[in-house]
Amino acid sequence: MPDTTRRTPSTEPAAGARAADASPAPRRAMRLGVAGPVGTGKSTLIASLCRELAAELSMAVVTNDIYTDEDARLLRAAGVLPVERIHAVETGACPHTAIRDDVTPNLIAVEDLEAEFAPLDLVVVESGGDNLTATFSPALADAQIFCLDVAGGGDVARKGGPGIERADLLVVNKTDLAPHVGVDAAQMVADATRARDGLPVLALSQHDRASLGALAGWVRQVLADHRSGVHVPRDPGPMAPHTHADGTTHAHGGAGDVHEHA
Amino acid sequence: MTSGLGSLLLADARLPVGGHTYSAGLEPALIAGMPAELIPAYMTARLRTVGLVEAAASVLAHRAVGGDGGAPVDPRALEAVHEELLARSPSDPLREVSGMLGRGLVRLAARLRPDHPAVAALRALGRAPQRPVALGVVAAVIGAGEAETARVSLYDDAQTVASAALKLAPVDPVDAAGWVLSTGDVMTSVVAEALAVRDAADLPAPTAPQIEGWSLEHRNKTRRIFIA
Ligand SMILES: Nc1nc2c(ncn2[C@@H]2O[C@H](COP(=O)(O)OP(=O)(O)OP(=O)(O)O)[C@@H](O)[C@H]2O)c(=O)[nH]1
Ligand SMILES: [Mg+2]
Ligand SMILES: [Zn+2]
Ligand SMILES: [Zn+2]
Ligand SMILES: [Zn+2]
């Protein structure tokens, strides 16, 4: 286990910790973001990660929900982690804001978990399913997975966008459904791989044990790189800016921006 | 000395302190059946009650850490304001959300002015001080005056209602801006009242029991989009 010296959560400048992360042996848990459109299997993926890794790593999860704590409930019901290690953050109907423009509520939740269950190895943050362009700020996530599914259509991967092109890992999920939705999963992975310039793409299915093992293996590797200082949090990049009626400005963009705001 | 930026920053919804998760009680009110036509009246009712208490607490906190005259930081005076404010906040969920918003402000101050004695006094209140106290301290630290602090506190409350209204009810955004603008006279008089408070023990205590009651119900709702 690396140095796990705890810092007082409320006094801890989170983004200020970035500089420290560049040096070997970061002192805190790795924060792994999971983003992607609604229903692509993010919560299920996180439950699988807990199942695969909780025996060897001390883990906690933060969910972001548009409506109260549905995802947290789902994960608690899955019985993959002690329920008190799963915190829900409500995002005020603005899931992208909570992972990008103002990550404060999420950082508070992460810090609470880190303080409560010190030392943690891994905190997974699930973004409230939003759109094809919402990605985590490096102020919140040390590494991020962007999750698509075959049911969203074979072209999605080709359309690109910051998450698809530059997340640390792109998951093409629910490959078991590909024949039923008329999608060529291998083609989708190939398209995504081309769009990502060498960054990894993983074809995943709950019905494919080997793929779940590969997912856990990827997380182990990133965690090792994070601890040794090799992994540097990377920003998948900005979205095209637009203004909301409430006066807040967000950035989105790309052909795939299909988010809704209440 | 001041560029005016301090109060502009604090009044701006883009300031990263977690405010987008809070509806200033509007969602609980609408769920409880308050008609959307009453939103402007709701906004004003808040300003006259919780708005006054919070603005006055912000002003006292501002003074406790030096105020407009730059006096030395008085950690005990700050603690007294915080305690008096807690004594006027009977709803546990509202104390909790205020603490969460306060924590966002602490984070901001700790990043921007880590060595400031006022920030140390704020941190000494615990990890999640109530938002009005944190607001007063942060305002003082970033160079906003006490009158601006009171106005920001009230303006932020009104704008929180207005922007939440856009997500919760069929409201034209221009109308919502108009509601905020039309609170001008109320705001001016509440600012004066807040500034007239000299001592933590004299912190005003008007309450909005209905808003408190709704906040308790909201905590148990399973389909809500704001925490309070
Ligand atoms: N066939 C199949 N279904 C899956 C797989 N993974 C998840 N699902 C199903 O997809 C649906 C959505 O899964 P979730 O994990 O809730 O998706 P999510 O991305 O967390 O959804 P939101 O949080 O609402 O955006 C559920 O019915 C899952 O059972 C998979 O590998 N194969
Ligand atoms: Mg989910
Ligand atoms: Zn938004
Ligand atoms: Zn948007
Ligand atoms: Zn969006």
**Bound small-molecule species:** guanosine-5'-triphosphate, magnesium ion, zinc ion
Q: What's the count of strands of chain B? A: 0
What share of residues of chain A is helical?
25-40%
Can you tell me the CATH class of chain A? Alpha Beta
Radius of gyration of CA atoms of chain B, rounded to a whole number: 16 Å
- Record field, number of beta strands of chain A: 9
Q: What would the principal axes of the Cα set say about the shape of chain B? A: globular
Protein name (chain B): Urease accessory protein
Pfam families (chain B): UreF
Keywords (chain B): Chaperone, Nickel insertion
Description:
Chain B: It comes from Streptomonospora nanhaiensis. Chain B: InterPro entries: UreF (IPR002639), UreF_sf (IPR038277). Chain B: Keywords: Chaperone, Nickel insertion. Chain B: This is Urease accessory protein. The complex is a heterodimer of chains A (262) and B (228). Chain A is of the alpha/beta class. Chain A has a single domain, classed as P-loop containing nucleotide triphosphate hydrolases (Rossmann fold, 3-Layer(aba) Sandwich). Helix content of chain A is 34%, strand content 18%. Chain A has ten helices and nine strands. Chain A has helices spanning 17-21, 42-53, 70-78, 95-101, 104-116, 156-159, 162-166, 178-181, 185-195, 209-228; strands at residues 30-35, 59-65, 86-90, 122-126, 143-149, 169-173, 201-203, 240-243, 249-252. A seven-stranded parallel sheet of chain A has the order 3-2-4-1-5-6-7, sandwiched between helices. In chain A, strands 8-9 form a two-stranded antiparallel sheet. Chain B has 228 residues and is an all-alpha fold. Chain B has helices spanning 5-11, 26-31, 39-64, 75-87, 92-112, 117-123, 131-141, 146-168, 173-182, 184-196, 209-219. In chain B, α3 packs antiparallel against α4 (75-87). The longest helix of chain B is centred in the first third of the chain and has 26 residues, at 39-64. At the A-B interface, α4 and α5 of A face α5 and α8 of B. Bound molecules: guanosine-5'-triphosphate, magnesium ion (MG) and zinc ion (3 copies). Magnesium ion binds at residues 42-43, 71, 126 of chain A. One zinc ion binds at residues 96, 130-131, 134, 250, 252, 259 of chain A.
